[in-house]
Structure formats: structure tokens, C-alpha cells
């Protein structure tokens, strides 16, 4: 049977490539930075322009489809995942990197139907790496198949995480305490590319054995979640339970045993959910 969503996925790959060229071009110019929720939550005109470019193009081609886009939600759109075909878009994942010229910047496009993720496209546009995965059909980087690492020893693992953008001292204490406990297992090292999507693609490639973070949003992880699972990895909540895309928490690992081992060291907390009703 023909794949119902292959057309949409082909379009997503083409759009990610176009968007990546816009982002690379913008890296050559001076970037005007604006703040969103705080002084470390940044947005640029390029984030907004790229999201509009992607959404408009999808609307023209698939007029009945719905969207969850980072900058649209910031502008007041609802963040709800229904059963309708829904594109979940982060126009620039790694805006802080983009602003500083740190070379991990990705366009992330996920696609869900009946609340199930069908495909994910993450384009790390400075490296020119196109990560793609279609549910049940494997994960690829620039067309080459991806496989997570076969490391089963936590003490020989590299773990990716981020300091995050929630900076009240109590939260920072929890974030640092989790990192301290993981370092003291000890693991080989802790890394962080500055983008959730690229960190997860690193799990899919096998160059890190796990990634976790609390504070991410559904658009940071939707596309890369398909890439990790199609590369043979597992996704879970930071407590080791089932992943909830709207919960702002993710743990991706090369195996369930590595994931569960890390989850035992994480001080979990619960940020306001992505699908929480807006404050009155
Ligand atoms: N100051 C900050 N430091 C790190 N990540 C940040 C951040 N502010 C927002 N983020 C978001 O948190 C995610 C995980 O760290 C990133 O992918 C990034 O997505 P963004 O660039 O699309 O906002
Ligand atoms: Mg992001
Ligand atoms: Mg973004």
C-alpha cells in the first residue's frame, strides 16, 4: 500500500532545507534579538520568518492540516494536539546558539496523526545534516541509516543534557544536583549541543548514549522522538515512566536499561504543561 504520509514527509524535508538556507544566510548578518518569557528565552525575526514560511507552505499544500509552532504559540495560538494531522514546528531549535553563532542550529518538523507521531525531520543546517525518520521505516542522516549505540554500561556512557532556560535558584539547584549525581556515577562525560533536537539526533547516531531535559517543549522533541525510536532508541519520562509529549520532560536513551539507570539520578520537577490552559 502506498504510504499515505510520504508526500507530507517529502514536503517537510524540502521545507527544512529551504528554511535551513534562510537560517544560514541570516547567520552572516547582524541578528536583532528579542526576549520572550525571560532574558534567556530569546527570539529573532528569523525564527518568526521561518515559522511563517513553513506554515504558509504547508497550508497551501495541505489546507486541512493543523499546526503547533513555537512562535505561533508565543503569539497566543493554542498548543493542543488533536486527532487531526498536525505539524509540530520549531523554526529554529537552538536560538541561543543562533544568536551567538554557536554552530548547532536546527529546523525541527514533526508530524502527528491521531496523536501518533508519523515522521520527524531535523535539519542541522550549519553542519548540513538532514535527519529523517518515518514511523516503521528507520532513521537516516543524509540518507545513511542511523543506529543508537549498543553501550550497556552506564559508566562507559556519555549523557547529553542542558542547563535549560528556567533560572530560578531552586530549579537551577535541582538541575545541577541531577548533573552532579550523573557525573559521580561516574559516566564518561556530560555534553550538550544547545538544541534538544540535535541532542536527540546524537542519541540516534550513537555518539551519546542518552539525553534528558526538563523544561523543553513539544516542538523541541516531537520530530527527533521519531528519529530516536526509529534508530532503535527508547523514549521515556525523566522518572522512567511513559513519555508525555506535553509534559515538558524527556529522556531519550540507547536502551531502556541506560534510560532507567539515568532516571534514578534525576531530580524531577514539573514545569507548566504545554497544553495547560492560559492563565486567566
Ligand atoms: N537559554 C537557553 N539555553 C538553552 N536552551 C534554551 C534556552 N532558551 C530556550 N531554550 C530551548 O530549550 C531547548 C533545550 O535546551 C532548546 O532546544 C531551546 O529551544 P529554542 O532554541 O527553540 O528556544
Ligand atoms: Mg526549540
Ligand atoms: Mg525555537
TrEMBL record:
- Where along this sequence does the record place binding of Mg(2+) 1? 70, 92
Q: Where does Mg(2+) 2 bind?
A: 90, 93, 220
Which UniProt keywords are listed?
Answer: Cytoplasm, Hydrolase, Lithium, Magnesium, Metal-binding
Its BP terms in the Gene Ontology are: inositol biosynthetic process; phosphatidylinositol phosphate biosynthetic process; signal transduction
Provide a GO CC annotation, any one: cytoplasm
The broad enzyme category this protein falls into is: hydrolase
Annotated pathway: Polyol metabolism; myo-inositol biosynthesis; myo-inositol from D-glucose 6-phosphate: step 2/2
> InterPro entries, alphabetically?
IMPase (IPR033942), Inositol_monoP_metal-BS (IPR020583), Inositol_monoPase_Li-sen (IPR020552), Inositol_monophosphatase-like (IPR000760), Inositol_monophosphatase_CS (IPR020550)
Reactions it catalyzes:
1D-myo-inositol 5-phosphate + H2O = myo-inositol + phosphate; scyllo-inositol 1-phosphate + H2O = scyllo-inositol + phosphate; 1D-myo-inositol 2-phosphate + H2O = myo-inositol + phosphate; 1D-myo-inositol 1-phosphate + H2O = myo-inositol + phosphate
| Pfam families per record | Inositol_P
State which Enzyme Commission number(s) the record gives: 3.1.3.25
Taxonomic superkingdom? Eukaryota
Indicate where this protein resides in the cell. Answer: Cytoplasm
What does this protein need as cofactor? Mg(2+)
Major location category of this protein = cytoplasm
Molecular function GO labels: inositol monophosphate 1-phosphatase activity; metal ion binding
- Tell me the SUPFAM superfamilies matching this sequence: Carbohydrate phosphatase
Query: Which family is this sequence assigned to?
Result: Belongs to the inositol monophosphatase superfamily.
The subunit field of the Swiss-Prot or TrEMBL record says: Homodimer.
Name of the featured protein: Inositol-1-monophosphatase
What organism, scientifically named, is this protein from? Myripristis murdjan (pinecone soldierfish)
Gene name in the database record: IMPA1
